[in-house]
Design brief:
Elements (H helix, E strand, L loop, with lengths): L12 E5 L13 H7 L2 E6 L6 H17 L3 E5 L2 H7 L3 E5 H12 L4 E5 L4 H10 L3 E4 L11 H14 L4 E5 L5 H7 L3 E4 L10 H11 L7
Parallel strand pairs: 1-2, 1-8, 2-3, 3-4, 4-5, 5-6, 6-7, 7-8
Helix pairs in contact: 1-8, 4-5
Length: 216
């Protein structure tokens, strides 16, 4: 399947982060519809621990619906699975993982980077060749910087660098401020999948916060 880069973003776009996925049936049945309705640029798929064959089958089952909605499918790590499953790229953790993955991903596929703890780390990621940097994503213990610090980092980055930045929103209330700070993409964390209004409604609310109109 042909791959494509993240779309150019003259305005802020949405980027969705899944909870750990072990079985495609655990994702909302209306996932593709929800992605299309909110014009989601990319979905970052976290894979629950499983054997390589099971992980590959899981990604292959989800990729067509995601990509047919016009959304890029990225895997959280699992670089070896990207080419074999038709995913569009991978999201890497830190500079070392990015540098190791780049020869296997570029130029055909996307390589993004998160958990960049300092300004220097973010600049090194850009120089190394990342397609985007993510600010505000939680560490492996679920801890992330103070929200004001995230906004400051995005504001600084958007004023100085051309490499797109993704601001991580822990809740729908954070979407607007992240966009206003200059984020090219706003990542909605896994909690959006548990929104009592349903995934599509939650994504449409997020889209409205950044000025994306629902389709007629």
């Amino acid at each position: 399947m042909a791959t494509r880069p993240l779309p150019d973003a003259p305005a802020t776009r949405l980027y969705l982060v899944t909870p750990p996925v072990a079985d495609p049936a655990n994702l909302p049945a209306d996932l593709a519809d929800a992605l299309a309705a909110a014009q989601v640029a990319a979905i970052l798929m976290h894979l629950a621990p499983a054997g390589e064959r099971a992980l590959s089958d899981c990604v292959k089952a989800i990729a067509p619906a995601v990509q047919q909605a016009g959304t890029a499918l990225l895997l959280d790590g699992h670089v070896d699975l990207v080419g074999r499953t038709g995913a569009d790229g991978a999201h890497l953790t830190g500079i070392a993982e990015l540098a190791e993955a780049l020869p296997r991903l570029k130029p055909e596929r996307i390589a993004g980077t998160g958990r960049l703890m300092t300004r220097h780390d973010a600049m090194v990621a850009a120089e190394t060749g990342t397609d985007y940097v993510m600010f505000g994503d939680p560490d492996r213990h679920g801890i992330r910087p103070a929200f004001e610090a995230i906004l400051e980092r995005i504001d600084w980055w958007s004023d100085v660098f051309e490499v797109p930045c993704v601001g991580y929103a822990a809740s729908l209330d954070e979407v607007g401020p992240l966009a206003a700070a200059g984020a090219d993409f706003v990542a909605l964390g896994p909690r959006v999948f548990d929104d009592p209004r349903g995934l599509r409604a939650a994504l449409e609310i997020a889209a409205a916060h950044i000025g994306i109109e629902a389709p007629k």
